[in-house]
Design brief:
The structure holds 2 protein chains of 2 kinds. Chain A is mostly beta strands. Chain A has strands at residues 4-7, 10-14, 19-25, 31-37, 43-49, 55-58, 61-66, 71-76, 85-92, 99-101, 105-110. In chain A, strands 2, 4, 5, 9, 10 and 11 form a 6-stranded mixed sheet that branches. A 5-stranded antiparallel sheet of chain A has the order 1-3-8-7-6, with no helix packed on it. The N and C termini of chain A lie far apart (41 Å). Chain B is mainly beta. Chain B is built from no helices and 11 strands. In chain B, the strands form 2 sheets. In chain B, strands 2, 4, 5, 6, 9, 10 and 11 form a 7-stranded mixed sheet that branches. Chain B is globular, with a radius of gyration of 13 Å. Chain B starts with a strand and ends with a strand. Classes of the chains: A mainly beta, B mainly beta. The A-B interface holds A 33, 35, 41-45, 48, 88, 90, 92, 94-104 and B 31, 33, 35, 42-45, 48, 50, 55-56, 58, 90, 92, 96, 100-102, 104-110.
């Protein structure tokens, strides 16, 4: 059974600092997703990582995937308040037709 | 292109009642998935439909059911509501492929169900 674990679950940081959210998954997965959720809102797709070594960047966010280590990271560079949200990673097994989500990381960025 | 829409957005029901939630996927998307989100359990998969067929089901009791219509719109039904069914129910659509690939899932705004 595929399990996905994120850490940390809560992260409070200051503007301008860098930090990384980690996402480990327990079995081979075909692809890894990162989503953002604002309070009371739905999930917004950020990145889809398809292969080992994949790296994607959008603004101050960069996601990477290491399939051998079964690890994905979401790196935040020079954080700004607008990035405050809950971030979820999710993995999928080909043919299983379902996403398995991590617990989410609640990120708070303080001025 | 219009996104995923869900109706209603908010619902208040009492224990023992039943409820039907609706989801309209992005035009051209044939796969619809349903997830339940609660503070305690996080995001949990309910079921996925493709071309009117349920392809996968999560670990939920039989009180939770769904269906998909020929236009890809989907409904989920919860019968004999319990307090623990209070949650945000999210629908997601993706292109989907007949061979099983899911593709990137795009989520709707959700239906917030409160059971009293």
């Amino acid at each position: 059974e595929l399990k996905v674990e994120q850490n940390p679950l809560f992260l409070s940081m200051q503007e301008g600092k860098n930090y990384t959210i980690y996402c480990n998954y327990s079995t081979t997965s075909d692809r890894l997703y990162w989503y953002r959720q604002d309070p009371g809102k739905s999930l917004e797709s950020l990145f889809v990582l398809l292969s080992n070594g994949a790296v994607k960047q959008e603004g101050r966010l960069m996601a990477s995937l290491d399939t051998k280590a079964r690890l994905s990271t979401l790196h935040i560079t020079a954080a700004v308040h607008d990035l405050s949200a809950t971030y979820f990673c999710a993995a999928i097994i080909q043919g299983a037709q379902k996403l398995v989500f991590g617990q989410g990381t609640r990120l708070t960025i303080n001025p | 292109k219009a996104g995923v829409t869900q109706t209603p957005r908010y619902l208040i029901k009492t224990r023992g009642q039943q409820v039907t939630l609706s989801c309209s996927p992005i035009s051209g998307h044939r796969s619809v998935s349903w997830y339940q989100q609660t503070p305690g359990q996080g995001l949990q998969f309910l079921f996925e439909y493709f071309s009117e067929t349920q392809r996968n089901k999560g670990n939920f009791p039989g009180r939770f059911s769904g269906r998909q219509f020929s236009n890809s719109r989907s409904e989920m039904n919860v019968s004999t509501l319990e307090l623990g069914d209070s949650a945000l129910y999210l629908c997601a659509s993706s292109l989907g492929l007949a061979g099983g690939a899911l593709g990137t899932q795009y989520f709707g705004p959700g239906t917030r169900l409160t059971v009293l």
